[in-house]
Amino acid sequence: MKTVGIPFVLLLLLTSFGCQSKNKSEKPELVQKEELEVSKKESFTESELQKYETAYFASGCFWCVEAIFESVKGVKEVYSGYSGGTENNPTYEQVSYGQTHHAEAVEVYYDPKVISFTQLVQVFFGSHDPTTLNGQGPDRGAQYRSIAFYRNDAEKKIITDYMAKLQAENVYDRPIVTEVKKFDKFYMAEDYHQDYERNHPNNSYIRNVSIPRLNRFKANFQSYLKEGAH
Fold first, then answer.
1. What is the β-pairing status of strands 139-140 and 146-150?
2. Cβ of 201: how many Cβ atoms within 10 Å?
3. Would you call 6 helix, strand, or coil by DSSP?
4. Which CATH class is domain 46-224?
5. CB–CB of 69/123 below 8 Å?
6. How does pLDDT run across 99-112, given as a tens digit for each residue?
7. What is the pTM of this model?
8. What is the secondary structure of 76-108 as a DSSP string?
9. pLDDT at 229
């Protein structure tokens, strides 16, 4: 997207709400007390999660993406992290400032008896703009690129077939630039990033970017939402 002609004030506003802004890098202990007063979330042990399937996606700030998949029925747990690059044990500072080849990504544990991988792919494409190269919303850089990861040929076919369907139906005005990438490894993000939207609803990035994005998704995918997530 060209920025020529966009008022300086608007550019400044977008920058202030970006994922690399001070507001996003704040750790929980620096956030106001009222942001911690949130609803409790069901938790699962590692052994309990092993009963479920996993899927991996990247589509911008992982705070936003985690919250979207958490709202989907059949999804048991979602973790924020890093994937798609070659560097071992990346940190948030390295990834968010484009110092690695990784993207902010999520690991989704889901019950295939309730939600299918095909439906998760639909959630992925329906909750972001897959025609934006190296960015999403106010966030720019390859660390925020769109990636649909697959673990086997069947998952790859589901992704590519759905992309072809979207293109054939002219759902978007521009070509889809989503990477279809073989899953290799997922690195868990630092603890303070997990459930960030839930735990910090008053953070300015959450209020102005994450929550509106989540609400747009909910409006279009009501039949996919968990009970009480409408």
1. unpaired
2. 17
3. coil
4. alpha beta
5. yes
6. 999 999 999 999 99
7. 0.85
8. EEEEEEEESSS-SS--HHHHHTT-SS-EEEEEE
9. 73
pLDDT digits (tens, 9 = 90+) for 56-71: 999 999 999 999 999 9
Domain residue limits, the chain: 46-224
61 is catalytic: yes
Specify the 3-state DSSP secondary structure of 14: helix
Tell me the residue ranges of DSSP E strands in the chain: 53-59, 75-83, 103-110, 135-136, 139-140, 146-150, 179-182, 187-188
Token reading at 154? 């069947």
Catalytic, out of 14, 55, 58, 61 = 61
Residue 228 pLDDT level (bands cut at 50, 70, 90): confident
For residue 65, what is the enclosing H or E element? helix 62-70
* % of the chain beyond a pLDDT of 70: 81
